[in-house]
Amino acid sequence: MKNTLKKNWGKVALCLCMANFACSGMAQTNKKLDEQVVKTMKTATQFMMDKVSYNGGFVWNYLPDMSRSWGEMEAKRTMVWIQPPGTPSVGHLLLDAYHATGDEYYYEAAKKVANALIWGQLECGGWNYVFDFAGENSLKSWYDTVGKNGWRLEEFQHYYGNATYDDAGTMEAAKFLLRMYVEKNDPTFRPALDKVINFVLESQYPIGGWPQRYPLMYDHPFQGKKDYSSFITLNDDVIPDATEFLLQCYQSMGLQGVKEPVMRAMYLIITLQQGKPYAGWSDQYTVDDLKPAHARSYEPRSVNTRTTADMVYKLMDYYKLTADTRFLAGIPAAIEFLESMKLPESDVKKWKQQSNNPEVILVPRFVDPDDGKPLYVHRKGTNVKNGTYYIDQDIANTIGHYSSAAFINPSELRRRYEEVKKIPVEELTKDSPLLQDHLVPLPKYYTRLRGEASADVAQELVKALSKEGCWLTPLKTTSNPYKPYTVSGPSNETKYVSTMVGDDNDTSPYPCTTGELCISVGDYINNMMKLINYLDK
């Protein structure tokens, strides 16, 4: 019996020894990978800051030899893009990397990005989509050539010279400057931060909304319609983003003067909901009567089903912040409206895109606010000079660059609504930054992770870094270089209806199919967040 026990204990000891050895080996392997990840992150960032950025500013994509670069459109080397994933997005990522590693290098790099943004901040306090270190004349020249000839990018066909809330540009920059200031309470960043806070407060309409651009300008009526840039704007989350920025200022700095504008903006979302039977939200509203309004040629005056779904989620968020049931009151009618817009199977068959989710329904994106008819967008022509957009009720052959229909999941909206209603009020209020008597720190990380963040993924990214120190990825979009041209009269050509670009005179970007490699700012940000997430785990 004793011999048997000795043998068994010997086996147990051997197993424990082997397990300890395996754990030790795993720990050494993980430690080695951790070191490689930290080194890779810094090498990639040094390349982006030293070789790619221009005075701390970025666009979106670059050819490796820097001969061409792009933001939303092709850009000059001296240009800096604000829209994500542009310069503020890099700044946010650098602060995230600083929080993950504690390495002061990332904070110093973030300061360079902040200084670039401060250089490009307009006198009014906000930012345009883009600025140019070569000066305003260089930027105007770009607008008159590349910008003016992007057929589907009408927002670049006219140079306003003011700031925009569109595409989250100004708000991304504002949130980054706020993070830079509160990180170390560095007074260097306070003047620029105060400037953009004042911009947001000054540009807010008394009723609570914001225009797309500010200071207000009315000098670009287009195709017989009013200049839409002064309209109260929900498109691209203009109101929610500005509200979130002011809320972050309140929670992290304790600025008392921003709380009332925050509340005014949140309650406006309730007011902007249309009545039954089309109880949704529009993308824009006229200021004097809060009626749905138009924007670009392919954004008709309508109730937008996609925006409606987004606002349902936003109202639930606002309820969680306030515990005010008024934010929930209009949700059932909004869901009923979305369900009522379900398209018949005959239209679903005409729509080329499909969904694997059995709960989703296909609905028209734009709905006439007067009679509930679907509004489908088409175009004819070959470029900005001879092309036109038009609206009808035929879902077939709609434009490819801006979807005329949307897949919506009313069942999920209804589930979320029922779940939110059940949350105890005391649970809602205990974490709301609006209801605290102390400052609430901003989140550790700002950048959202896209994709997986495992040890295997981290190892692949370490190996994928080029010998020069960057990640090279396939160029997703390219464009026709600008060239002067003339056309005679309108065109009825239909072969560019569903494409991202017209003829070779159109400077709009389109999918690149050559496999050409580039340095992508978006991919750099995403790869870095995967590595940061790995380190966190």
What can you see in these coordinates?
By secondary structure, the protein is α+β, with helices and mostly antiparallel strands. The protein has helices spanning 2-52, 87-101, 104-120, 136-145, 169-184, 190-203, 238-253, 259-272, 305-322, 326-329, 331-340, 345-350, 410-422, 425-430, 455-464, 521-536; strands at 61-62, 69-70, 74-75, 79-81, 130-132, 163-164, 213-214, 232-233, 284-285, 303-304, 361-364, 366-367, 376-380, 388-392, 405-408, 472-474, 477-478, 510-511, 517-520. The strands form 8 sheets. The protein has a 5-stranded antiparallel beta sheet.
Number of helices: 16
Quote the beta fraction. 5-15%
Q: Judging from the principal axes of the Cα atoms, what is the shape?
A: globular
- Any idea what the radius of gyration is? 26 Å
Uncertain spans, ≥5 residues at pLDDT below 50? none
Approximate helicity band = 40-55%
Averaged pLDDT: 94
How many strands appear in the DSSP assignment? 19
Q: Give the spatial strand order of the biggest sheet.
A: 3-2-1-19-16
- Structural category is alpha+beta
Largest sheet: 5 strands, antiparallel
Report how far apart the termini are. 47 Å
